[in-house]
User: What shape does this take?
Amino acid sequence: MKILVVDDSSTTRSRIRKELLASGHEVVEAASGDEALEKIPELEPELITLDVDMPGLDGYETCYRIRNGGVPKAFSELPIIFITANDTIQSRQKGYQAGGNEYMSKPFLPGELSMAIERAQKAHDGIRGHTVLVVDDSSSIRSLLTIGLRAKGLNVIGASNGKAAIEALKKEADKIDLVITDYLMPEMDGDELCHKIRNELGYRDLPIIFLSSLGEKDHILKMFRAGASDFIVKPFSLDEVQARAAVHINSKILGDQLRSNVSELKRAHTMKDKFLSICSHDLRAPLAGIQGFADLMLFDEELSEENLEYLQHIKSSADFLNSIIGDLLELGRVQSDGSSLELKPVQLASQIESCISNLQHMASPKKIRLTLDTAGETDQRLTVAGDKNALKRIFNNLISNSIKFSHPGSEVGVKFTRNDSTKKLHVSVIDAGIGIPEDKIDGLFDPSARTSQVGTSGEQSFGLGMVIVKQLIDQHRAEVSVKSKKDVGTTVTVSFPC
Assistant: This one.
């Protein structure tokens, strides 16, 4: 950044130059206010440090002229930092009235000036152009606040009472980013104004700062109950008002951005669901034809052995594609309906028995035994808060995965363990199959990671099953862990609160 240092003392200019060069800035100098006004168009600085006490034009007058036509308009709003040995409330107010942005006291510590420059630039760039509604029945206070806030690049709308403020908000609601209001006013006080802003106008996210000479705890609590975001006790300093205004405006900017991002995400999510729904219909219709004709052709006894093999490949690929479409639809449904799960007491053992029964057709061709160990616990002690259909999806997926990756003739077991000290019910699905490579375990529940493997009988997998499982487990406020060793087996444990 190019910085113009204006000071009649060559020693001070040298010291400032040294610090700014060390911070990576480009430095140009002027020894007086007149010289600064003359050099600004030529040097094109991005920020000015300005000594207050100089012969001829002092800092205040130089600043005033910069702001009011003494230089080309392109340079009239540059950030200006006053530097003075005479740092008082009155001098600061005079500096802000002249149009200054920051105020520094001599002598300053190493690094202090660089920090002030960074603050001035951030404030100038970050909140510049935003609008503050100032409400006070005192014209002098309104004027003082207007000067201080405009020094930070803010636009200011003034109102002499609560009724005028409400009218301003109705007209300029989209432009106003902050309200600063007096607490005690005729016609409509700050309490009533705040209540109307929050409840009648519905601006619940608009920051409101109260100004009050009443610093007692009861009055402060009353302000916050009315809907205040912050308060400042009178008499106040403009520095404090500027700092708090910047904090609340930046917070509002971030909040607005967040709400906009959430809205965009919801819109994209809705479009994704519609896309999946359309795809499922458009893909499944011709796919059903392929599957149906493949099934019919398999009954043809005159097929050659080679053609029968090709046909079985077609049938297997169509079935796999159908399972991918099903997984994509299921994932979309889980993500969109996640917040609507109604958790009720469910006897988990009976749900898992149903899953085991339904999956016998998958285990029988591989001669895999499916077992359930309830550890002698009663149904009551194996009850969790859950959604029956979602729980079946979880364990159907986990058990079918174990079957898919288990060797023929082996065993897949489901084991219950209740831990009363931690108030957890652990349900483990255990197999002695091919296991999961260690570098793939962390990506099991990540939809962007490709962790799919081929089953022991050539079963194909797209890898979305575990992603769906994790989302459903999260919706039950439960946890999942995986222990696996290649060629030894895998244990997936779901831990429910109980």
About this structure: The mean pLDDT is 87. The CA atoms of residues 353 and 391 lie 12 Å apart. The chain is about 50% helix and 20% strand. The first helix runs from residue 10 to 22.
